[in-house]
From TrEMBL, chain A:
Protein name, entry field: Metaxin glutathione S-transferase domain-containing protein
Chain ranges of the Metaxin glutathione S-transferase domain: 216-275
Cross-referenced Pfam families: GST_C_6 (PF17171)
Lineage, opening ranks: Eukaryota, Fungi, Dikarya, Basidiomycota, Agaricomycotina
From TrEMBL, chain B:
Protein name per Swiss-Prot or TrEMBL: Bacterial surface antigen (D15) domain-containing protein
GO CC annotations, alphabetized: mitochondrial outer membrane
Keyword Hydrolase: no
Bilayer topology: Multi-pass membrane protein
Name of a matching Pfam family: Omp85
Domain of life according to the entry: Eukaryota
Biased composition (Basic and acidic residues): 10-21
Keywords: Membrane, Transmembrane, Transmembrane beta strand
């Protein structure tokens, strides 16, 4: 016997509604139809003849801009009106890939960008990632550690010292990027010591304390580049070139001794300038 | 006892055997006698006053006793207009007993309006001033002040969420009827909110008040927008009651909004609006309410017009206008019809619109039988809000048969509305026509329960017509709040 509370007829009745359905209300598309890279804002530029106002001031974002450009992709749009909190995992850059055929809109985190680039260039099977041999590939790891260690610390300290104190206070942990404590080995001491009543916080490190290491790192970089077109004498640009460009570009736009150290090495300045032209040409403002 | 000297018994007096009944009867008789004497005295006094209304009298001074925490300058500020009105009357027809009584009543009323006093008792006596002339009187007001500190904790349900709150209030902070209030609450959807408010009267009639407030709120919007929103702001308001012409409020506010805590599946549209933005805006609202009951009205009407202009500084620039009205009519005892309508539009003046500023539609307090804030443009799982909307609701409200005194009523409703995005290539009138052309419609029946100060509804309804992007709620839906469509 059917009970009054038998859900099936009841649900069947409810499923008849709504009796009429309009098409969905669409969202106006206010962004580029092609791939768009979300980056941190670039430096303001008065130079109208070049595309120099399109390179991000954030090293992480600029690294991926350089990677995409040096892999030969062009006409990628960039936008910098999105907060880092809008990115995947609260970070930028992100790559917004529009729908193509059956593939819907997709937002890619940095870790997925290289796969996407490989897909676009058809370069799936390079085990050496563009390096000449496996020993150079291993050597690239050491150079990456150097750049992401001492050089990154020097650039971060240089950028922080150029900002007003209250801006540093307002920056969130996400905006600061990786904590300085994890970029150096051994990690620097905290601001408060054992004798302090405050719990350990911050890092006790200044630019002058790492000036020697930083100068050595830049000199090494210059010597390794020499007169080669790309780092580690690669035939084509690699991820190391993108990373090196990102740091060199940031250092050359700093306001203190970190910039002077780089300008002492003419080959680095010339190399950065050449790569910058190529990177700027690959992107358009969304 | 000697024959003939016994007291005559009252015809209704109980016998001497029933002492209890006799005692009660005597007490009732005494009470009737006293009441009669009192009414007679009041009648005689009223007659005496009415016969002497034209007696020349003039208020020479006003004294307020018992207001130890209230500034004299503030009391003088309140009272002076009444004295000026009394003495400055050119026709001279207020310099009599009637004028004095009117002035005393007015001053007493304005002191009660300050909400500073438990009681205000007015007395009129001959003036004790040495220079007083014949006919000069003083008005003496004996007051008893209310306590200045007030703390309350509460559990509240309203606008479809529950919360616990703590409120602290300091009355008469500087002796001028200023109010300092702090309110903190934590709830299901508004996770945390804090408001600090300082208000003071700006006019001697107390119809105009100024307010400064700081507020801080965190709301969980994940049910419809995959994010949370926190707001920190400051607001300065002037609120003026124009009596039968309604209440005007002008405000300036600056708010720091932060869209954060995005879900991993948040849409691109919500991600675009993530982060911090500042809104700096001025607004004006006009409200008029003649309803007999704000919660379950059966008579009267309610009208509200709200306008906001943002962009004086800050990151967003828009003009927004909203209008809301409700009218109720009882056409037979126990049965009333209520009609409500709301509409609004927003025009972005510079840049692009922001999620926090757009309208939302849908839910048990808005369009019933649709999910809360789920109508209009959608990107993936997120409801983005819109620039233009309208909604109407008709409800037939009835008493429960043979239980008219119950706070539970039955109702049948039909709601219609639409939330849309303005097409920048078309004019406002074209956008309005386009928005009106394809309404979503729902209908149903339900019960409403009056649970002061909110109303609780349990409805069974279905959407009859809807857009594919609308979030629908077929079947039962519960709503708790104060403003229903």
């Amino acid at each position: 016997m059917d009970s009054f509370f038998d859900r099936t007829p009841f649900l069947k009745f409810l499923n008849k509604f709504p009796l009429y359905t309009y098409p969905a209300i669409t969202v106006p598309q206010c962004h580029s139809q092609g791939p768009t890279l979300w980056i941190a804002p670039p430096r303001a530029s008065d130079d109208q003849t070049t595309n120099s106002g399109i390179l991000s001031t954030d090293v992480e974002c600029l690294k991926w801009q350089a990677y995409i450009a040096l892999r030969g992709l062009t006409d990628i749009a960039v936008r910098w009106d999105i907060s880092p909190e809008g990115g995947i995992d609260g970070r930028l850059p992100c790559l917004h890939v529009p729908a193509i055929g059956d593939i819907s809109l997709e937002l890619l985190a940095p870790r997925a960008i290289s796969r996407w680039v490989d897909g676009r260039t058809g370069n799936w099977n390079d085990q050496l990632n563009g390096y000449r041999d496996s020993s150079l590939k291993d050597e690239s790891t050491a150079w990456v550690s150097l750049l992401e260690g001492v050089v990154h610390t020097a650039l971060t300290l240089s950028q922080e010292s150029s900002q007003p104190a209250f801006c540093q206070i307002l920056k969130t942990a996400v905006a600061r990027g990786r904590a300085l404590g994890v970029t150096l080995s051994p990690p620097p001491a905290p601001l408060t010591g054992l004798s302090s009543v405050l719990p350990p916080f911050g890092t006790n490190i200044t630019l002058s304390s790492i000036q020697g290491q930083y100068a050595e790192a830049i000199t090494s970089l210059s010597e390794r580049l020499g007169t080669d077109r790309w780092f580690l004498a690669s035939e084509n640009p690699t991820a190391l070139d993108a990373l090196a460009f990102a740091y060199l570009h940031g250092l050359l736009h700093s306001q203190d001794s970190t910039r002077i150290e780089v300008t002492r090495h003419v080959n680095l300045v010339a190399w950065e300038q050449r790569v910058r032209t190529q990177v700027e040409a690959a992107f358009t403002d969304a | 006892m000697v024959e003939g000297l016994q007291p005559a018994a009252h015809p209704h007096e109980p016998g001497e055997n029933d002492l209890e009944k006799l005692k009660k009867w005597q007490e009732a008789r005494l009470e009737r006698k006293l009441r009669g004497e009192y009414e007679s005295a009041v009648f005689n006094l009223a007659e005496l006053v009415n016969q002497n209304l034209e007696t020349p009298l003039s208020v020479a001074g006003v004294r307020v006793d018992g207001a130890t925490n209230t500034r004299k300058s503030f009391l003088g500020w309140l009272i002076r207009p009444w004295l000026t009105r009394h003495t400055g009357n050119q026709a001279g027809n207020s310099n009599n007993l009637q004028g004095v009584l009117y002035t005393a009543r007015g001053i007493s009323h304005i002191l009660q309006e300050t909400d500073l006093f438990h009681s205000v008792d007015a007395k009129i006596q001959r003036s004790r001033d040495h220079l007083a002339k014949d006919g000069d009187v003083d008005i003496i007001l004996n007051t008893r002040e209310k306590g200045r500190l007030y703390i309350k904790t509460a559990t509240e349900f309203g606008n479809n969420e529950g919360s616990v709150s703590v409120t602290g209030r300091v009355r008469n902070v500087f002796g001028g009827a200023e109010l300092l209030e702090g309110h903190y609450s934590a709830g299901t959807k508004t996770r945390r909110s804090f408001q600090g408010l300082f208000s003071l009267p700006l006019s001697p009639s107390l119809r105009t008040r100024g307010q400064l407030s700081l507020f801080n709120m965190e709301r969980d919007l994940s049910s419809f927008a995959s994010c949370s929103e926190s707001s920190h702001g400051f607001k300065a308001t002037i609120n003026s009651d124009w009596g039968t012409q309604g209440v005007h409020e002008v405000a300036y506010q600056v708010v720091l909004r932060h869209i954060n805590n995005l879900a991993p599946n948040a849409s691109v549209s919500i991600r675009t609006d993530a982060g911090q933005t500042i809104k700096s805006s001025i607004s004006h609202s006009w409200t008029k309410d003649t309803r007999d009951d704000k919660i379950t009205a059966s008579r009267g009407y309610y009208g509200k017009l709200f306008q906001e202009l943002a962009g004086l500084s800050g990151d967003v620039s828009f003009y927004k206008a909203e209008v809301e009205s409700q009218i109720s009519r009882r056409f037979v005892p126990g049965l009333s019809l209520s009609f409500a309508a709301r509409s609004g539009f927003m025009k972005t003046l510079a840049g692009r619109g922001h999620f926090s500023d757009r309208f939302q539609l849908g839910g048990p307090l808005s369009l019933r039988s649709f999910k809360a804030n789920s109508m209009g443009p959608r990107d993936g799982v997120d409801s983005l809000g819109g620039d233009i909307y309208w909604s109407t609701g008709i409800s037939l409200i009835s008493d429960i048969p043979r239980k008219a005194h119950w706070p539970v009523k039955a109702h049948i409703f039909v709601n219609t509305g639409r939330l849309d995005v303005m097409d920048a290539t078309k004019g406002l009138s074209e956008n309005i026509i386009e928005c009106l052309r394809r309404p979503s419609v729902s209908a149903g029946i339900g019960l409403m329960y009056r649970f002061d100060p909110v109303r609780v509804e349990v409805n069974f309804g279905v959407p009859l017509v809807a857009s594919q992007s609308d979030g629908m709620r077929r079947g039962f839906q519960v709503g708790i709040g104060m403003d229903f469509l």
